[in-house]
Each structure stands twice: as structure tokens, then as C-alpha cells.
Design a protein that fits this description.
The complex is a heterodimer of chains A (about 140) and B (about 160). Chain A has helices at about 10-25, 30-35, 45-85, 90-95. Chain A is an all-alpha fold and about 140 residues long. The N and C termini of chain A lie far apart (about 120 Å). Chain B folds into 2 domains: about 1-90, Rna Polymerase Sigma Factor, Chain: A, CATH 1.10.1740; about 100-160, Winged helix-like DNA-binding domain superfamily/Winged helix DNA-binding domain (Arc Repressor Mutant, subunit A, Orthogonal Bundle). In chain B, about 70% of the residues lie in helices and about 0% in strands. In chain B, helix 1 (about 5-25) crosses helix 3 (about 55-80), helix 6 crosses helix 8 and helix 7 (about 130-135) packs across helix 8. Chain B starts with a helix and ends in a 5-residue tail after the last helix. The chains are: A mainly alpha (about 140), B mainly alpha (about 160). The interface of A and B includes residues 12, 39 and 51 of A.
């Protein structure tokens, strides 16, 4: 082993002392193997099993209750949004209402303000016609 | 390996296994014995099988480390859900017999992160190489080397210069 060459020997000795002290107090192997298994790691005692089951049930109930609350909240919000998007008949009637004297407000040519006038297409040139070219008075 | 061979190996490594179990269990003797018993039973009844990919010592120490980790998780869960505080890992009884140097040494070790402490213990206390330590801890040799280097510097800084 070359890893601890550059380490303080006193520190290495402390590690070794610690290990030796533990090794000396190691329990008898046979006694360790045959002793009651009540405290074996990973094996749950009956009392604890009940407590764990109760805790697990409580956790499941909590998760289920949370899910119900979340679903209900989402559904109520969706319903509220849907209802808000449907206008009442009164609102629709108001939006389509027109005054009986609305026609008096229309003046001649007022349609020019709301739409582009449609001009007639340019006349096609007649065959044989020579267009007059500007001469500025000089023939 | 036959069951008889495995049993013989366990007997041979039992003192070192107990020392490693103490290191993994925060020097709590009761927990260390429970962890060691469970580890041996896992190996003897075949729940943990030695495949021969490493030395038996590396395999045994790995099983002890994993079993100790299971015990820590179980204790943490019990404390969390059942409000049951596990016995603190303060070896008060044996602390009285330990020298001042050893107490200071334990205090310094306790301030290291778990991985760093485990690598140092495996190398210095149990004479493992960094490769064997890495196999025991299920980490890469590079990671073991980094943990080792940092831990060594930290312990030296915590304990200060010492004379043999």
C-alpha cells in the first residue's frame, strides 16, 4: 500500500489504535448469529408494521383528498370560464339594436368615407389612332 | 465458495468486520452489532452472494456498508413518520476510557463527510488500497482518490502537526 506514505505516522497510528480497540471488543460470532432476531436490520417489528401501515394509509388518504380538491377547483374554474363566454340574450339584443332615425344621419357621399370608390377601367387604344405627342409649339 | 468456506472467511474477518461496522454506524455498538448480524445472515442465507469479482473482505465490507445505510434510512424514516428518535450515536461509555488523543481524533473524523471518512478508514485502518476501497464503497477509483486526498488534508488540518 503506497497511499499513506506521505501521511503523518501519528495519524495512521490513531486509525490503527481505533481499529484494534474495536476488534478487541468484537462480540462472539456464534452468539451474534444465534441471538434473537428482534433487532435485525430491515426486518420490521409487528408493532412498527401496524404503525407503518397506518402512516401509509394516512398518506394515501391525504393524497386522495388533495387530488379531489384539485380536480374540483379546476372543474369549477373551467365551468366559470365557460359560463362567462356565453352572453345573455339581453346583451346580444343590445349589440344588434339600431335606432329608427339612424337613416337621417346618412348624408350624400357618406359612403365614400367607408369604402374606396370603384373607377371605370382605362379605355383601350383604338387601332390606327396615333396619340398626340406634345410638341411644345414646334412642328 | 462452499458455505463452509464462507463461514470460515467470516470467522477470519469477524473482528475487522465488527470494527468496520462500528465505523459505519457512527460508533454505536448496539447498531453495529445489529448491522453485523444482518450482514452475516444475508451472506449465509444467500441474499448477498459472493461472485468472486473481488476479495471476500471487500465483498463483506460492502455488504456491511450497505446494511448500515439501510439501517440509517430506516431510522430516519422512523424518526420522520413515527416521531421516534433513535439512540444517538454517542459512545458515552467507551468515551470515558478513550484517551484525549483518540477523542480529538474521533471528533476530527466526525467532521468529515461520510464518504471521505469511509475512504480514510478503509485505507488507514484496514489496509485497503484505493481500488479496494472504491469497490467496497461502490464508487470509481478516481472518486475514491479525490475523497482520500481531501480527507487526509482535512484530518491533518484538524489535528494539527503531531509527533509520533
Amino acid at each position: 500500500m503506497t497511499e499513506n506514505r506521505d501521511t503523518d505516522p501519528a495519524i495512521v497510528r490513531l486509525f490503527e489504535d481505533e481499529r484494534r480497540a474495536d476488534e478487541v471488543t468484537a462480540p462472539d460470532l456464534d452468539a451474534l448469529l444465534v441471538r434473537p432476531a428482534g433487532r435485525r436490520v430491515g426486518e420490521v417489528r409487528p408493532g412498527r408494521r401496524v404503525a407503518f401501515a397506518a402512516a401509509a394509509l394516512a398518506l394515501v388518504a391525504l393524497v386522495a383528498a388533495s387530488a379531489v380538491v384539485v380536480v374540483r377547483t379546476v372543474r369549477s374554474r373551467v365551468r366559470a370560464a365557460t359560463e362567462a363566454s356565453v352572453l345573455p340574450p339581453e346583451a346580444i339584443a343590445l349589440s344588434t339594436w339600431k335606432s329608427p332615425t339612424d337613416a337621417f344621419l346618412e348624408t350624400p357621399g357618406s359612403d365614400l368615407w367607408t369604402q374606396v370608390p370603384d373607377f371605370a377601367p382605362a379605355p383601350q387604344p383604338v387601332p390606327g389612332h396615333i396619340p398626340i405627342s406634345p410638341t411644345k409649339g414646334v412642328d | 465458495m462452499t458455505p463452509a468456506d464462507i463461514r470460515a472467511e467470516i470467522e477470519r474477518l469477524h473482528p475487522a468486520g465488527f470494527a468496520w461496522s462500528m465505523a459505519c454506524c457512527g460508533r454505536n455498538r448496539q447498531t453495529a452489532e445489529d448491522v453485523l448480524q444482518t450482514s452475516y445472515l444475508k451472506i449465509l442465507d444467500g441474499r448477498a452472494r459472493f461472485e468472486g469479482r473481488s476479495s471476500f473482505k471487500t465483498f463483506l465490507f460492502g455488504v456491511i456498508r450497505r446494511t448500515a445505510a439501510e439501517e440509517r434510512r430506516r431510522a430516519a424514516l422512523a424518526g420522520l413518520f413515527l416521531g421516534r428518535a433513535e439512540a444517538a450515536a454517542t459512545p458515552a461509555a467507551e468515551a470515558g476510557a478513550a484517551s484525549v488523543d483518540r477523542l480529538a481524533f474521533r471528533a476530527a473524523l466526525a467532521r468529515l463527510p461520510r464518504r471521505q471518512r469511509e475512504v480514510l478508514e478503509l485505507v488507514f485502518s484496514f489496509g485497503m488500497s484505493l481500488q479496494e476501497s472504491a469497490a467496497t464503497l461502490s464508487i470509481s477509483p478516481g472518486a475514491a482518490s479525490v475523497h482520500y486526498d481531501r480527507a487526509k488534508k482535512r484530518v491533518a488540518a484538524l489535528l494539527g502537526p503531531r509527533t509520533p
